[in-house]
Amino acid sequence: MKDKLQELRQMRMKARLGGGEKRIAEQHAKGKQTARERIEMLLDSGTFQELGGLATHNFTDFGMADKRFPGDGVITGFGKLDGRRIAIYAQDFTVLGGSFSQVQAQKICKIMELAQESGIPVIGLLDSGGARIQEGVKSLAAYGELFVRNVLASGVVPQISVQMGPCAGGSVYSPALTDFVIMVKKTGYMFITGPEVIKAVTGEQVDFESLGGAMVHNSVSGVAHFAADDEGSALRIVKELLNYLPLNNSEDPPRVTPYDDPARRDESLDHLIPESSDEPYDMRQVVSGVFDRGSFLEVHAHYAKNALIGFARLDGYPVGVVANQPLFIAGVLDTDSADKIARFVRFCDAFNLPIITFVDCPGYLPGVAQEHGGIIRHGAKIIYSYCEATVPKISVVVRKAMGGAYIAMSSKQMRTDLAYAWPSAEIAVMGPEGAVNILYREEISKAANPAERRQQLIQEYVDKFHNPYSAADMGQIDEVIEPSTTRLRLITALEILRSKVSSNPPKKHGLMPM
User: Fold this and answer.
1) Less Cβ crowding at N or C end of the chain, within 10 Å?
2) Band (119; pLDDT cuts 50, 70, 90)
3) Is 382 helix (H, G, I), strand (E, B) or coil?
């Protein structure tokens, strides 16, 4: 027995070294940690329990017979993060470049199945050169097995992908199927085809960073949700993100001990909105004044900046926050912001997070590019998502709520539970200039002084419609509130809505406009 224990310890020691000390040194020279070091950085000390640590491939072709490593390039198991259970897998680039193999797929799929059955989140730390070419079509088939697990776990347990190294070809679709993608700057890359293939096929010259780096996918493509300066920062984002999320879709999100006075009034909110409706302001000031101090975690901060989304807390309870951002193109809705909002609303609904929406939107962005780019289809995603959501929903019209944007942004008709408005709210079918041009074109043309008459009519329209009171009179707004009381109003409302029971008609699934 003593010899057998010694043999086991030697095998485990070999597994801990991954591809060997030389490969580990090369990994460190790139500013990257090994798979095991990353797991140790993320999880609570001493809680990681590995599964499949001794598994190896059984291929002998293409010189693979002598390239067997315990674990076969991925470490899988369970552990605790801030005392909460999670499942985790980490690709090991020191072993055959972390290439995705049949054994890797079996190990990851097993851990994902166990996570789904146990109702715990799945964290993937990704660092791989792609499919293992030596295994041929079997490695491609292995991706298919993984994609199925990603889809089946979607909306059941949170899935977070951390891109710490390269990710190319078919392998990019697994993180794309997860709920959140975090990318490390300078070392994390994602692309379908690399720079060399692109140059050969299209003649375009591009480097890794410009093609699929962290900031490209955070600000241009929208594939990634967070950009981290280094691996430690990326893992801290994982921890912070999970603090807002339940372990699975049958649990409530975790409340923290309240540390901010629920009755706190931020008087600056009473004076935040500019006198001119065309003047911008930062919606983040509204968010920071309303929610528990320092609790806002912005998601997709670099993408579609005309929309603001993220997680925050009210009296210790996590909520999802959706808002227009007047600092960027006046907070209008376009194709990208529609996708950004719709996806976040659906995530919050899947994991029992109440949705608080702050509205200041003059409408959908006009233009040929937007129309041809499918603004109708993309804009419908917001409508679909809000209508489908059964979690508590509260909207606050801060300033502009015009036309279709008023309806789309969690209006009363979209099954929103409570709709508030600030006195600065402007709720109308369209802006005053456009409305007057349509309604009074003939009268203005016949006036002795057309410009003066037009201005008079605009002011009359503003006085009559550009306020929250007409909407409140018709029941479209439940209450017009003082901005500084918004925090207390929301906390009190959520106390009632927390026990809300709502459901959708039985069906396999709806057909969301894609």
Assistant:
1) N
2) very high
3) helix
Token pair for residue 130?
């792609």
Burial class for 95, CB neighbours closer than 10 Å (0-12, 13-18, 19+): buried
**CA distance linking residue 381 with residue 383, whole number of Å:** 5
Long-range contacts of range 171-175, CB-CB < 8 Å, 24 or more positions apart? 171/100, 171/126, 171/128, 171/130, 171/131, 171/143, 172/223, 173/143, 173/147, 174/124, 174/143, 174/146, 174/147, 174/150, 175/124, 175/126
**Phi and psi (nearest 5°) for 184?**
-90, 125
Per-residue pLDDT tens over the stretch 224-278: 999 999 999 999 999 999 999 999 999 999 999 999 999 999 999 999 999 988 8
Q: How far apart are CA 496 and CA 237, in angstroms?
A: 31
CB 140 within 8 A of CB 170: yes
Round to whole Å and give the CA distance between 273 and 324. Answer: 14
- Please give the structure tokens belonging to residue 432: 């005053």
Q: For residues 364 and 404, is the Cβ–Cβ distance under 8 A?
A: yes
Average pLDDT over residues 329-350: 97
pLDDT band for position 11 (cuts 50, 70, 90): low
Averaged pLDDT of the chain: 92
CATH 3.90.226.10 boundaries in the chain: 2-242, 267-429+466-497
Q: How many residues does the chain have?
A: 514
DSSP single-letter state for residue 470 = H
Superfamily for the 267-429+466-497 domain: 2-enoyl-CoA Hydratase; Chain A, domain 1 (3.90.226.10)
Looking at this protein, which amino acid is placed at residue 244?
Y
- pLDDT, tens digit, 9 for 90 and up, residues 30-41: 989 999 999 999
Which has the closest alpha carbon to 175: 135, 141, 198, 146? 146
The helix/strand/coil state of 80 is strand
Whether residue 393 contacts residue 410, with contact meaning beta carbons closer than 8 Å, is answered with yes
Count how many Cα atoms sit within 13 Å of the Cα of residue 190 in the half-sphere of its side chain: 28
Under DSSP, is residue 275 helix (H, G, I), strand (E, B) or coil? coil
Q: Smallest Cα–Cα separation from 264: which of 238, 290, 235, 229?
A: 290
Supply the residues annotated as catalytic.
Answer: 169-170, 404-405
Which CATH number applies to 2-242: 3.30.70.20, 3.30.230.10, 3.90.226.10, 3.30.559.10? Answer: 3.90.226.10
